[in-house]
Amino acid sequence: MNIEQGIFLVAREALSLDQATVLEDKEHYRLIDDPKAGVFYICLGGQECDLPSLLHKARKKEETVCVISLTDIEVPVSDEFHRFQKVRQFTYHGSRFSINAPYKIEKMGLQDLDYLAAHYTRIGDDDSYFREALDRGMLKAVSEEGEIMAFIGEHPEHAMGMLYVDENHRRKGIGTVLEKALINKFLDEGKIPFDHVVLDNYKSMNLQRSLGMTLDEGFLYWYF
Hints:
Structural class: alpha+beta
CATH architecture of the largest domain: 3-Layer(aba) Sandwich
Order of helices and strands: HEEEHEEEHHEEEHEHEE
CATH topology of the largest domain: Aminopeptidase
């Protein structure tokens, strides 16, 4: 199966970084295991497959499974997973941003774990997830007089995300600056910046479009 279409970027990225393995490559689907990120990808070119069986096979490998489809599909219910999330993917194909901001973006540390856990919630994330992200140095924050104003991060599957702006500092453009800085980091590393946005998160979708990010065709279905 060909996975060169934009929607399969997250799976291609895992393969390009030599941290994932193709387990099956059939006419209508490809199975990719990424043990470093803890994600198993089921890439669908159509609906001509037994998805419940593929989910069961994937669950044996990883705790988190991502089904990527070129078309909107009927998602089976699986008792093997506790949570589910349907998202769209945005990608950036522009040039680096010129950033002129009056504050410094700094790396977050384990001392920020309580603040992170108290102010950011996403299906599938917990203290161990945040602790690992902090250990990897994948979270950056803007602070003022020791108070965190906003933060952003990179997920294990190398998607941008975890953006949060404190309610006292919103409408100042801080979130936009943080995402621009993260996009620049991706570009400097030779990677395509991308993120996954939940369907009803219209504010985030509008932010991605304002930054020149493109909405890819297809859908991603995350099982946790």
